[in-house]
# Entry
Amino acid sequence: MKIHDELLELRQKEKRITSEILNKLQEMENCRKYLEMGHHSLFDYLVRGLGYSEATAYQRQACVRLAKEVPEIKQKIDQGSLTLSAVTTAFKHLRKKPVAEKRKVLKSMENKSSREVKAMFLKPTPTIKIKKTEYLDKVHLRLELSHEQHEKLERLKALKSHKHNAESLLMDLIEKELKSYENIQRKSPKPTETKEFCAPKSKNPRQISKRLRNDVLTTADYKCQYPGCESRQFLQIDHIFPVRLGGDQRRNNLQVLCASHNLHKG
Ligand SMILES: [Zn+2]
# Structure
């Protein structure tokens, strides 16, 4: 197709021009002629002298500086296996690293998308971070997810035909989960009416069934049962007679404690 061929040709020219500009900028950086023109840095020259936007100037400067130590990146940029934005990201993160390491990382960045390159420098966030601020009339939760966790959330939204936004999806899941506990309570007879003192089904004394957990929490009115404490935060099911001393998960050996009192009890 003619228009496609024309664009391909222009794209080739664009690559050549970018490469020529980078070479010329490197010359300029070496002779520092921009100082005589009243510019205090290459960056200042790129913005005020050549009219680049600050973001583009930063990219060009990053390439020039990095290419001084690892010259082969110019060729990679020409070939398209390294992008200017990838090189800029590497420049930001590798500034103080030895040349050998820069070379190695740049090699591993070839043919990766900008997003993949950025992900290479992100510290893994294994858990979801939630920052909570309480007001009189509401609770403000700030949720921080890794890209992977966010992708899972988006996948679930798509599976639900985008009927939900993140907020309504979260509420929907909470409602469903709560109902599953409440239904168990409604269907089952109360543990106190049956085998309270009988040996529990599970052999693992730390394994407490949904039904039992629900009963312990409801009886405690979702509050810490430590004398004088009324906390409803970070509630945990505690074995009154500790598991390490032979205590098990019979109903009469379980109580609700907040995390602080559980820790305090030891
Ligand atoms: Zn407490």
About this structure: The first strand starts at residue 129 and ends at 134. The first helix runs from residue 2 to 31. The beta strands are 129-134, 139-144, 235-239, 254-258.
